[in-house]
Amino acid sequence: MRIPLSWIREYTEFPATGTADELMAELVTVGLEEEDVHATELSGPIVVGQVLEKVPESQSNGKTINWCQVRVVPEGQTQTLTGEGIDPTGVQGVVCGAHNFEVGDKVVVTLPGAVLPGDFRISARKTYGHLSAGMIASVKELGIGEDHTGILVLGTLGLDPEPGTDAMELLGLYDTAAEINVTPDRGYAFSIRGVAREYSHATGTEFTDPVSLVQLPERTTSGYPVELDDDAPIYGTPGCDSFVARTVTGIDATAPTPPWMAARLRLAGMRPISLAVDISNYVMWELGQPLHFYDADKLTGPIRVRRAVTSENGDGEKLTTLDGKERELHPEDLLITDESGPVGIAGVMGGASTEVSESTSTIVIEAAHFDPITVARSKRRHKLPSEASKRFERGVDTQLQAVAAQRAVDLLVQLAGGTDTGESTHVGEPVLPEPIAMDPSLPERITGVPYGLQQITQTLTDIGSEVREQDGALLVTPPSWRPDITIPEALVEEIARLVGYDQIPSRLPVAPAGRGLTAEQRRRRTVSSGLAGAGFTEVLNYPFYSVEANELFGRAEASTPLPLVRLANPIAAQYPTLRTTLLPGLLDAVRRNVSRGFKDLALFETGAVFLPGTQQGSAEIPGLGAYPGDAVIDGLEAGIPEQPLHVAVALAGSEAAPQLGAEGRGRDWADAVEAARSVAELLNVELTVAQGSHQAFHPGRTAQLLINGQLVGYAGQLHPKVVEDHDLPPRTSVMELNLTALLEAAPDQVTAEPISTYPPTTQDVALIVDEAVTAGDLRTALTEGAGELLESIELFDVYSGQGIGEGKKSLAFALLFRAADRTLTAEEASEARTAAVALAAERHSAVQR
Question: Structural domains in the chain?
Fold first, then answer.
């Protein structure tokens, strides 16, 4: 929301010398965030000039220029400016290529030393055989319009100033605008009226409500006929509960918009279009009530407000809106219609058939109050954001319609030469705010600030509420422009905001002695710290996924049913479900980093996944202010999906950056499996790795991860088709574990094994087995065969190819032997190794290589 300073000064005591930064500094104290400062990019001597002489001169290039003599000081006075090209007589010679002006016209002249938008500096220069000392400016060159083909003739704006008059002041170009951020719950601040009231709250100065300056006629039904026909509201309230129609005749639709109004609208971020359109926008910006003007001669019959209808063959109504597009209307759209059909989508955009044009002489003004939900859904359905819909969907003052209509009537009479017929139609009764009962002690209980009863009452009265005491409570009726205030807590927020958030004490809670982190919290931090220490980078992703992503990564087989938690109002249409796995988010992070040049990646994430049960959600949400009962709470909890914690990693590229003369080792499926083992070791949980299968993983390079026979995750290399479809690096590998299951299996206490003081003995063994034999099964056989002397066993090589045989592979293990009470002899280690090989040969037909 942009606030021109000259505009807000009309209704507040904001100082004449105050700056936009000073205004925003005050508004920040009442919760309106500062955004930016906007000003016209003009400086230097820019004055009104009168054309005394205009001599056309044809040029060799085919152009015709005008050599002009322009008076830039009052007649009889001399020029006070000095510098190159400045004539002391006050008559400047200027070359001009435009032809839309005549001798005697008043124009805007930029003299040497002036700076125009785009850092365009004016200086005296020789051109077309003349010394041109200045420029006669167009609206585009002044930055106040788009037309650059013709000179700005001030007479077309109804202005006849004296030569030498400051043109920037005349056109309102010295003004500045402050831009603030307005939160969705404070729609009233989308107006000069609302911001001026907030400024008065912030500074304690006087506020003049512009509504109080408008003289309203008596309410009648004698104006243009209007019918409200929405007996079956879709969203709980009627689509339109109040409609005011006013008629102004004899207007001059070609009359120019006054410079002061055009300047304010430009600073507010709106492009001046025509006087009628500019007046409707001006009133909306000033009061916060959107208006719509109809050409009365193009309306047929009474105005009727109704929902769109569908014909028997299923065809919907259509409307060509002001942007020239034909739109198929939805049965939920609220329409403004006449006997010819739709003439506008209520609160969003009017139709082209009744648009005000240069030939319009009679205008019917619409000032209505529309249901916010109806307007918001129509706006999104038709992708038609507008300043009007922005205000309606946030809530417009229900008592403002007649005032805004009268303000528009007054401006049309004053600026367009119109005549107020005195006819007025006001149909419907808007819903007034309901009183809210609040315990006077509630503000202190919530904020910790001891507000007195008088301060509470005064603050709520200042925002426009009516406050009275009843049975020991305060009965507060919010103002009509605050539809966001519906509960006592909202009143407390207003008190805290206006008295000052800085009054709320800052007290950190003291943690109870001797508690600290829970065992689960410590273990979760151990896992995260361990992965980070192993070179992984932690990421945090959104939990919203597409259905396809959940179904691909969230289940091992495509035929397995996968219940999903669907969102009633997703953040984006393509992400309608909550995640059942962490992998899609991690892979998005991999793809995003690779696209930015980071190809060597080791990422991990811990977070909850959402696994729905038979019941999802609850039939209704209990009201506030009272405990709903154990049965209701149990019902609510039953509808909450199970949310176990998972940990997942994703690996791509090399383990270490390639060095000169040495390539980094490429990460693969074994690194993903090792990451799973590391997590288990950090929690002192025994993890079993076995051959597995998953639709998103590479066949033969997939491990299933088990604890006590229970499947808790997968690790391995992604399927090449998945890698290709998701634009991932080749051989991208991943791992995901059910961290909650690991935490539950982790022992409460860990008993450290005694450290042997005797040296270990290491022996290697390479065994040739069938391709179908997994490394995990062979490792198990070797471990059992080696007996108690075996301390650890690690796979360090896998080979297949020449010298091994078709359908065979070689697996090499490093076996470490140690005794607790003696130094092992080579013979003892060899016997244990031989026993291990023998059991492997018995179970898997393994042959030593």
Answer: 2-40+175-213 (3.30.56.10), 46-170 (2.40.50.140), 226-427 (3.50.40.10), 436-503 (3.30.56.10), 519-609+644-745 (3.30.930.10), 761-848 (3.30.70.380)
Closest CA to 38 of 227, 225, 177, 186: 177
SS3 277: helix
Structure tokens at 154: 């001030």
Task: Please state, in angstroms and rounded to a whole number, the distance separating the CA atoms of residues 76 and 609.
Answer: 85
pLDDT digits (tens, 9 = 90+) for 101-125: 999 999 999 999 999 988 899 999 9
The low-confidence residues of the chain, meaning pLDDT below 70, are 148, 232, 657-663
* Residue-wise burial string across 546-579, b where 16 or more C-beta atoms lie within 10 A, e elsewhere: eeebbbbbbbbeeeeebebbeeeeeeeeebbbbb
Distance of CA 63 to the CA centre of its chain: 51
SS3 state of residue 767: strand
Contact criterion met (CB below 8 Å) for 128 and 95: yes
Smallest CA-to-CA distance from 715 within 795, 648, 656 is with 648
Tell me which residue of 607, 643, 606 sits closest to 531, measured CA to CA: 606
In order of 577, 635, 641, the CA distances from 638 in angstroms are: 19, 5, 8
Q: What is the pLDDT of residue 243?
A: 95
Give the Cα separation of 166 and 46 in Å (integer): 6
Region for residue 256 given its phi and psi (left: phi exceeds 0; alpha: psi -120 to 50; beta: otherwise): beta
Structure tokens at 673: 């499996």
> CA distances (Å), 59 to each of 129, 555, 783, in order?
10, 80, 101
Give the pLDDT confidence score for residue 514 in this predicted structure. 75
Global pTM reads: 0.68
Task: Give the C-alpha separation, 269 to 38, whole Å.
Answer: 9
DSSP 539-597: ----SEE-HHHHHHHS-SSTTS-----B-SS-SSTT--EE-S-SHHHHHHHHHHHHHTT
The pLDDT assigned to 467 comes to: 94
Contact 819, 813 (CB under 8 A): no
Q: What pLDDT does 785 receive?
A: 94
| Phi-psi map region of 653: left, alpha, beta (phi>0 left; psi -120 to 50 alpha) | left
Fill in the DSSP letter of residue 665.
Answer: P
Q: How many helices (H) and strands (E) does the chain have?
A: 21, 39
Dist. CA 266–CA 173, nearest whole Å = 10
Tokens at 201, concatenated: 């709250």
**Are the CB atoms for 43 and 114 separated by under 8 Å?**
yes
Q: For residues 297 and 363, what is the distance between their CA atoms, to the nearest angstrom?
A: 8
Q: Which two tokens stand for residue 396?
A: 């417009």
CA distance 545 to 604: 18
CA gap 609, 622 in Å, rounded? 26
Please give the structure tokens belonging to residue 696.
Answer: 């998103």
What gap in Å lies between CA 730 and CA 719, rounded to an integer?
10
Provide the CB-side half-sphere exposure for 164 (13 A, CA).
Answer: 13
Q: Which one-letter amino acid corresponds to residue 675?
A: A
Q: Which residue reads 């955009």 in tokens?
A: 349
Q: Residue 826 is encoded by which pair of tokens? A: 């080579």
Q: Tell me the three state secondary structure of residue 329.
A: coil
Percent of residues in the chain assigned helix, strand, coil, to nearest 5: 30, 25, 45
* Angstrom distance (rounded) from CA 711 to CA 747: 19
Backbone angles phi, psi at 669, to 5 degrees: -60, -30
Strands 733-738 and 645-652: antiparallel
Instruction: Give burial (CB, 10 Å; 0-12/13-18/19+) of 177.
Output: buried
